[in-house]
Design brief:
CATH class: Alpha Beta
Largest sheet: 7 strands, mixed
Structural class: alpha/beta
Order of helices and strands: EHEHEEHEEEHHH
Number of strands: 7
Strand content: 15-25%
Oligomer: single chain
Distance between the termini: 16 Å
């Protein structure tokens, strides 16, 4: 059994969809984790995995992600979840009001932890911040309505199924899936 530790139900559903297409099922483990404050997203994710493992004592994955906006010197970055709760997409758009450079990177770090090892998998999707909040048929969650991936015309929120194939999280999950399937001989 593989646990996915997150308090974010939408994140669980997305990860579960992506993994299930590759024959990997996860159980939602919604446990309260202490999140360290650090500028390094990998350190934050590894610490979350260690904390989760100390509670569950079972194989698990955690995911931490951040939206890094170049003109804001990487803000909100590792503080993306907190910033979203405080100012939301509207606040990010206000910070960028009148700014031409809207380049951003969405970064995802997946950490696998069991009783023997800990492995880190990273995914980066380059893109830009939209000028307005852009919902489609799929409302999206978090920063989905304002992040437009490179070479795309739609925000994550406007693309729904395609997001599962191109997102920062999908890139990190692909690396995890390849390693996990070879490590545990899953076909």
């Amino acid at each position: 059994m593989l646990n996915f530790v997150t308090s974010n139900r939408s994140k669980f559903m997305e990860v579960s969809r992506i993994l299930s297409k590759h024959g990997i099922s996860v159980v939602h483990a919604d446990i309260e984790l202490v999140e360290i404050q650090d500028e390094d997203i990998e350190k934050v994710a590894v610490a979350k995995a260690e904390g989760a493992y100390s509670v569950l004592k079972q194989s698990l994955i955690v995911e931490d992600d951040g939206l890094f906006i170049r003109v804001l010197r990487g803000f909100p970055g590792v503080y993306s979840s907190y910033v979203f709760r405080c100012i939301g997409n509207e606040g990010i758009l206000k910070l960028l009001d009148g700014v031409d450079d809207r380049y951003a990177e969405f970064v995802s770090v997946i950490v696998y932890r069991n009783d023997i090892e800990s492995m880190v998998f990273k995914g980066v999707r380059r893109g830009r911040i939209a000028d307005t909040i852009r919902y489609g048929r799929y409302a999206g969650w978090g920063y989905d309505p304002i992040f437009i991936p490179e070479s795309e015309e739609f925000s994550y929120a406007e693309m729904y199924n395609k997001k599962d194939e191109i997102s920062h999280r999908c890139i990190a999950l692909r690396a995890f899936i390849e390693w996990y399937k070879s490590r545990y001989d899953i076909r």
